[in-house]
Amino acid sequence: MRRRAGAVLRRLARDPRVAALGERLALHSVRTRTTIAACVGVTLVLLAASATVLLLLRVNLERTVETGAREQAQAVARLAGEGHLPPLLPLDHGTDFIQVTDASGIVLASSQNLAGRPALTPTDTEDGHDSYDVLALGDEHHQRVATLTAPTPTGPATIRVGASLRTADTAEDLTAAALAAMSGILLLTVGVLTWRATGRALRPVEAIRTEVAEISDRDLARRVPVPRSDDEIAQLARTMNAMLERLEASGARQRRFIADASHELRSPLAVLRTQLEVALTHPDVEVRHELVSGALQDTGRLQDIAADLLLLARLDAGTDRPNQPVDLAEIVMTAEARSSRVHPVELDIASRISVDGDPRWLGRLLTNLLDNAQRHARHKVTVRLRQDASTGEAVLDVVNDGPPIAVADRERIFERFTRLDDARSRDEGGTGLGLSIARDIAAIHGGSLTVPDSPEGTTFRTRLPASPPTGEAAGPAR
After folding, report:
1. Residues 80, 102: contact at Cβ < 8 Å?
2. Is the pTM of this model over 0.70?
3. Is 75 within the bounds of a domain?
4. 349, 445: one domain
């Protein structure tokens, strides 16, 4: 029998439905803790309310009993004062006894149940009321005794009227039982409703958790369910989906970047290997020299690609915004002096503008833009530096008079390894990473890099937050 019971318990423990129920009933569960908190709160409120009701009921009932006893004592006092006090006094409804004594303690009159008995004496005091030993009346219950002293023709007399609290005790007991029953029902109702409401509210959260737990790094296209209710949980679901979209887009960019990088590296590596293999076996010294020179050029191109990839990796890793004061006019003049001289560069520097940043990275940004402009310009390249009067930003324009870029391609050119004219860019030494690096540098400095409409050809506009000026106006434009 014990073995069978143990087997049944083990099967129940392995049942997923039982396990799920156990998780919901666990004390660390939000549903359980919320239900317990609601029940405890309601219990405290009910206890306080019930105690208040019982206290008020008791006070009102005792006050009513005492008022009735005092009224009957006053009626007996009037009879005693008029000298019409009979030896036996009738009892009103709710009155247990009446006893009238003179100053020496002799009983002058009493109710029928105290006839022939000596004067009552108090035994102790409870709650400000005298307690009398009236067990001889045959029924033990709470009483309130009204004591009154009244003048009579023969001298002062003390009148004691005992009123029963049996009705008050019964009403208090019934009320306490009713409050206990109602409190139990209310507490059970609150617990059930809280449990069900919390479960219903947390059901979408559980659905979101289950879906997220099943999403792997290769299945980022899945989305969590969004509840129909426009509440905080729906906002959480939409936020989770937005995060999954960003992760999916980031994963897609990384895969595309790896594929493009592999492709970009494979081509020069294949050419380099071919050149070296031919140079190794070719008998002509001049041909071998020419092949080795080409291999050196391809090696340099590989070094450029590796350096750009390393810089992009550093930019992608994230870094604090540089805060070194940098004179943009000085950066422009230095970059112009170092750039290639395929086409002349015209500088238009309105004033010296200082920004917070890294001079090496800002120099790399301008160098990349100048190299790109030199490759695509027809006759000249123009660099303009000014400060936007409305926003206070530093605006750096690099303009080439070559063919304009189509509106549809103005964002695509900033993607990595993107070339609108692939063959010409390869021949002229472009890696397809310069514009992407320039935009990332601008973003790290809190700025932007865009291609606005321009009648002069193609303009690359960099906007950077300007700091207070560091010098006087620059000399005349060159």
Report:
1. no
2. no
3. no
4. yes
